[in-house]
Amino acid sequence: MVLSGKLITELGIKTPAEKFYKLFAAELHEAQVICERVHHTKLHEGEDWHDTATVKHWTYVIDGEVHTCYDTLEEVDEQNKKNTWKLFGGDIDKHYKSFKLTLQVIDKAEDGTAVAKWTVEFEKINEDIHPPNGWMDYISQCTRDVDAHLSKARAARKD
């Protein structure tokens, strides 16, 4: 059995790529207000949510269970609207030696729609651990929550 792997999902969104990416690049602390499955977030170390030296603590729900972990921002590529976070501690360390989450937001069409491409890279601590398939559902739901929130705000400004 393979110990490491990669899961990828691409989700169509109504929000323009720049606006969707901005939430994750500069307003990540808003996730707990927007995403139903994010229960709580807080800065664990550091003062800036979007600095690579900052450690954030997360409490979230996957597969109906409350989980916790920490993250650090590992890579920022503003030009390609791409960020990578390293997740560790809490429930992550119980199952994985390494766990990375990457978001890239890609403009899709002239109508302002885009694609949110999420990649989960992981290395399991042993062969008995299942791949993090629950993360894909969690990511999909959070993407829908953020897209709906940003689309609603966008529509309200047009009125």
Number of domains as seen in the coordinates? 1
Low-confidence stretches: none
Query: How large is the share of residues in beta strands?
Result: 35-45%
One letter per element, helices H and strands E, the order comes to EHHEEEEHEEH
Using the alpha-carbon principal axes, give the shape.
Answer: globular
Distance between the termini: 55 Å
- What's the CATH C level? Alpha Beta
Q: What is the CA-atom radius of gyration, in angstroms? A: 16 Å
Oligomer: single chain
Average pLDDT, rounded to a whole number, is: 92
Class by helix and strand content? alpha+beta
Q: Determine the fraction of residues in helical runs and give it as a percent range.
A: 25-40%
- Sheet with most strands: 7 strands, antiparallel
Strand order in the largest sheet: 1-7-6-5-4-3-2
CATH superfamily: START domain
How many H/I helices? 4
CATH fold name: Alpha-D-Glucose-1,6-Bisphosphate, Chain A, domain 4
E-strand count: 7
Short description:
By secondary structure, this protein is an alpha+beta fold. The chain is 28% helix and 43% strand.
Topology of this structure?
Layout: E1 4-13, H1 17-26, H2 31-34, E2 38-45, E3 55-62, E4 65-77, E5 82-88, H3 92-95, E6 96-107, E7 114-124, H4 133-158
Antiparallel strand pairs: 1-7, 2-3, 3-4, 4-5, 5-6, 6-7
Description:
The structure is a single chain. This protein is α+β, with helices and mostly antiparallel strands and about 160 residues long. The protein has a single domain, classed as Alpha-D-Glucose-1,6-Bisphosphate, Chain A, domain 4 (2-Layer Sandwich), CATH 3.30.530. Strands 1-7-6-5-4-3-2 form a seven-stranded antiparallel beta sheet. Strand 4 and strand 5 form a beta hairpin. The longest helix is centred in the C-terminal third of the chain and has 26 residues.
